[in-house]
Amino acid sequence: MSSDNPCTLTLPDGTHYDLSPLSSSSADYVSQVGDVSYKLNVCRAVVSELWKIDDPENVGGFVSRTGGDFSLGQVNSTLLLSPSTNEPMMYLSNGSPCPLDSQSAASTAIRFICSPSDFHAGKPVLVAALPPGDPANYCQFFFEWSTHVACPTNPKAEMQKAHYYIAFFAIFLIAFLTWFFGHTLYNRFYLKRRGLAQFPLPSFTFPKLSAGSIRNPFTRAEPSRPRFGFGRRSRAGYANVRADEGYDEEDGFAGRFSLEDDEDAEDLTGEGVQVGANAALGEETDAWRGAAAPGGMGRATNGTTVGGGGGHGSGKPKLGAHQGLVDI
After folding, report:
1. Dist. CA 188–CA 194, nearest whole Å
2. For 161-174, how does the pLDDT look when each residue is reduced to its tens digit (9 = 90+)?
3. Residues 6+ apart with CB under 8 A from 317
4. Is there a contact between 28 and 47 (Cβ–Cβ < 8 Å)?
5. What percent helix, strand, coil does the chain show, rounded to 5?
6. Torsion angles phi and psi, residue 75, rounded to 5
7. pTM of this prediction exceeds 0.90
8. At residue 195, does pLDDT exceed 50?
9. Is 78 helix (H, G, I), strand (E, B) or coil?
10. Using CA atoms, how far apart are residues 233 and 231, in angstroms rounded to an integer?
């Protein structure tokens, strides 16, 4: 145990007590027992006016009696640890001579109790006095003092904790600076970046919101209804429609306007005369090419005459089934 500073006590494990805040220069602390008032101060002499007492400058506590004030002990700023309760104690010795034994001097022991609920300084309470009997003959006094000032602190542990925080912060700062300057040098000399682009600064991207995408939560959504008639078509049209692989455009067009379709049409109408396959093929070929058949006139599949001067009046050949379409 050590007490480098007055009114303090530091244990080997770092537990620290400091009772200097109890030292009062304005008033003494009073312990009232019936009509008797015991006045004490901590680590300094009492400030009350004394009457008929020896060495008043060093009186640490006193009680008023009929023959004059009685000293409870001289000032002491050394704290000791209670062997039974491990709490700080203060001893005042060399007080006034005892009434029943003039060879002995009065003494006082004060045990300070940690009381976190007492936010004030508290006050001493007399718990025992010797010799028993008449209070006027008391010469040894025992006080208990409950106060939050008597609660221990651990400056070594707090300092160690502070050192841990400082070391953690220093390591974090060194790591951050190493990362920052390393990325900066990499961006500048390897990626050839300049300006703010060379620093590893975070970039934030926010989603773009249009006025149409924001809907009023209080607006009632109407159910979709089917549309009839001609609506607006997408500008894309049939851009996404693709032909199958291997599709031949000429074959497809010829298939749409094939000769077999025309023959089927004649059979359905019943107006034409079935001719041989070769004659029909030749006549349709002439109709597509816009030329007359051999002999100055041709026969269409529907029985009409094509070309020649043997027509009626106009002299113009009559068009075949697909003649007008081919000319266009």
Report:
1. 6
2. 666 778 888 999 99
3. 292, 306, 307, 308, 311
4. yes
5. 25, 20, 50
6. -60, 140
7. no
8. yes
9. coil
10. 6
